Protein backbone atom coordinates (compact mmCIF):
# COMPACT_ATOMS: atom_id res chain seq x y z
CA UNK A 1 0.00 0.00 0.00
CA UNK A 2 1.23 3.49 -0.86
CA UNK A 3 2.12 5.65 2.12
CA UNK A 4 0.81 9.18 2.50
CA UNK A 5 4.36 10.46 2.45
CA UNK A 6 4.92 8.88 -0.98
CA UNK A 7 1.69 10.40 -2.28
CA UNK A 8 2.82 13.86 -1.18
CA UNK A 9 6.22 13.43 -2.85
CA UNK A 10 4.54 12.22 -6.07
CA UNK A 11 2.16 15.18 -6.03
CA UNK A 12 5.06 17.58 -5.48
CA UNK A 13 6.95 16.07 -8.42
CA UNK A 14 3.88 16.46 -10.63
CA UNK A 15 3.48 20.13 -9.69
CA UNK A 16 7.17 21.02 -9.94
CA UNK A 17 7.25 21.77 -13.72
CA UNK A 18 4.26 24.09 -13.38
CA UNK A 19 5.82 25.98 -10.48
CA UNK A 20 9.14 26.31 -12.34
CA UNK A 21 7.34 27.59 -15.44
CA UNK A 22 5.31 30.04 -13.36
CA UNK A 23 8.44 31.36 -11.68
CA UNK A 24 10.39 31.92 -14.90
CA UNK A 25 7.79 32.93 -17.51
CA UNK A 26 7.42 36.72 -17.64
CA UNK A 27 4.45 36.56 -20.04
CA UNK A 28 2.64 34.24 -17.65
CA UNK A 29 3.27 36.63 -14.75
CA UNK A 30 2.04 39.58 -16.83
CA UNK A 31 -1.15 37.71 -17.79
CA UNK A 32 -1.92 36.78 -14.19
CA UNK A 33 -1.23 40.31 -12.92
CA UNK A 34 -3.35 41.82 -15.69
CA UNK A 35 -6.24 39.47 -14.96
CA UNK A 36 -5.98 40.17 -11.24
CA UNK A 37 -5.91 43.95 -11.65
CA UNK A 38 -8.84 43.88 -14.11
CA UNK A 39 -10.86 41.66 -11.79
CA UNK A 40 -10.04 43.85 -8.78
CA UNK A 41 -11.02 47.02 -10.64
CA UNK A 42 -14.25 45.41 -11.80
CA UNK A 43 -15.04 44.09 -8.33
CA UNK A 44 -14.53 47.52 -6.75
CA UNK A 45 -16.68 49.13 -9.43
CA UNK A 46 -19.51 46.63 -9.10
CA UNK A 47 -19.72 45.79 -5.43
CA UNK A 48 -19.79 49.14 -3.64
CA UNK A 49 -22.95 48.93 -1.56
CA UNK A 50 -25.14 47.30 -4.16
CA UNK A 51 -27.33 44.24 -3.94
CA UNK A 52 -26.67 41.06 -5.92
CA UNK A 53 -29.62 41.82 -8.23
CA UNK A 54 -28.22 45.26 -9.07
CA UNK A 55 -24.79 43.80 -9.80
CA UNK A 56 -26.29 41.03 -11.95
CA UNK A 57 -28.39 43.46 -13.99
CA UNK A 58 -25.39 45.74 -14.52
CA UNK A 59 -23.26 42.82 -15.71
CA UNK A 60 -26.05 41.79 -18.06
CA UNK A 61 -26.57 45.25 -19.56
CA UNK A 62 -23.29 47.18 -19.35
CA UNK A 63 -20.98 46.56 -22.32
CA UNK A 64 -17.96 48.02 -20.52
CA UNK A 65 -18.38 45.62 -17.61
CA UNK A 66 -18.71 42.65 -19.98
CA UNK A 67 -15.61 43.77 -21.88
CA UNK A 68 -13.62 43.91 -18.63
CA UNK A 69 -14.86 40.46 -17.63
CA UNK A 70 -13.94 39.12 -21.05
CA UNK A 71 -10.44 40.65 -20.79
CA UNK A 72 -9.88 39.13 -17.36
CA UNK A 73 -11.05 35.72 -18.58
CA UNK A 74 -8.82 35.93 -21.68
CA UNK A 75 -5.81 36.81 -19.53
CA UNK A 76 -6.49 33.90 -17.19
CA UNK A 77 -7.01 31.52 -20.11
CA UNK A 78 -3.72 32.67 -21.67
CA UNK A 79 -1.93 32.25 -18.36
CA UNK A 80 -3.39 28.77 -17.90
CA UNK A 81 -2.34 27.73 -21.41
CA UNK A 82 1.19 29.01 -20.83
CA UNK A 83 1.36 27.30 -17.45
CA UNK A 84 0.29 23.99 -18.98
CA UNK A 85 2.76 24.42 -21.83
CA UNK A 86 0.17 24.59 -24.58
CA UNK A 87 1.36 26.17 -27.79
CA UNK A 88 -0.60 27.93 -30.44
CA UNK A 89 -0.89 26.25 -33.81
CA UNK A 90 -1.23 29.19 -36.19
CA UNK A 91 1.20 27.76 -38.77
CA UNK A 92 -0.38 24.33 -38.72
CA UNK A 93 -3.89 25.73 -38.99
CA UNK A 94 -2.93 27.97 -41.91
CA UNK A 95 -1.28 25.07 -43.74
CA UNK A 96 -4.36 22.91 -43.26
CA UNK A 97 -6.63 25.69 -44.51
CA UNK A 98 -4.55 26.30 -47.65
CA UNK A 99 -4.31 22.56 -48.33
CA UNK A 100 -8.07 22.21 -48.00
CA UNK A 101 -8.72 25.08 -50.38
CA UNK A 102 -6.22 23.70 -52.91
CA UNK A 103 -7.79 20.23 -52.78
CA UNK A 104 -11.24 21.77 -53.17
CA UNK A 105 -10.12 23.65 -56.29
CA UNK A 106 -8.29 20.66 -57.79
CA UNK A 107 -11.11 18.18 -57.29
CA UNK A 108 -14.03 20.51 -58.00
CA UNK A 109 -15.97 19.00 -60.94
CA UNK A 110 -16.35 22.41 -62.60
CA UNK A 111 -12.86 23.89 -62.24
CA UNK A 112 -10.84 20.77 -61.46
CA UNK A 113 -9.95 19.47 -64.95
CA UNK A 114 -8.83 22.88 -66.23
CA UNK A 115 -6.91 23.61 -63.04
CA UNK A 116 -5.18 20.23 -63.11
CA UNK A 117 -4.30 20.68 -66.80
CA UNK A 118 -2.86 24.17 -66.11
CA UNK A 119 -0.92 22.90 -63.10
CA UNK A 120 0.45 19.97 -65.10
CA UNK A 121 1.65 22.34 -67.83
CA UNK A 122 3.34 24.59 -65.28
CA UNK A 123 4.98 21.79 -63.30
CA UNK A 124 5.84 19.32 -66.01
CA UNK A 125 6.23 21.76 -68.89
CA UNK A 126 3.51 20.56 -71.19
CA UNK A 127 3.86 17.30 -73.09
CA UNK A 128 7.59 16.71 -72.83
CA UNK A 129 7.27 13.23 -71.33
CA UNK A 130 5.36 11.85 -74.28
CA UNK A 131 2.00 11.62 -72.64
CA UNK A 132 -0.87 12.06 -75.03
CA UNK A 133 -3.45 14.79 -74.63
CA UNK A 134 -6.65 14.17 -72.79
CA UNK A 135 -8.61 13.63 -76.03
CA UNK A 136 -6.66 10.45 -76.84
CA UNK A 137 -4.47 11.83 -79.66
CA UNK A 138 -0.69 11.15 -79.53
Structural class: mainly alpha
Quick one: overall form?
flat
Q: Please, how many helices?
A: 6
Task: Determine the strand fraction and express it as a percent band.
Answer: under 5%
Question: What integer is the average pLDDT?
Answer: 76
The sequence of SSEs as H and E is HHHHHH
- What profile does the largest beta sheet have? none
Please report the distance between the alpha carbons of the first and last residues.
Answer: 80 Å
Number of strands: 0
Mind telling me the C-alpha Rg?
Answer: 29 Å
Q: Which residues sit in consecutive blocks of at least 5 with pLDDT less than 50? A: none
The helix content, as a percent range, equals: over 70%
What topology does this entry show?
Blueprint: H1 4-24, H2 26-47, H3 52-61, H4 63-84, H5 90-106, H6 112-124
Helix pairs in contact: 2-4
Written account of the structure:
The protein is an all-alpha fold and 138 residues long. Helices cover 76% and strands 0% of the residues. The protein has six helices and no strands. The chain has helices at residues 4-24, 26-47, 52-61, 63-84, 90-106, 112-124. Helix 2 packs antiparallel against helix 4 (63-84). The protein is flat and about 75 Å long. The termini are far apart. The mean pLDDT is 76.
Which characteristics define this entry?
mainly alpha
In short:
With 138 residues, this protein is mostly helical.
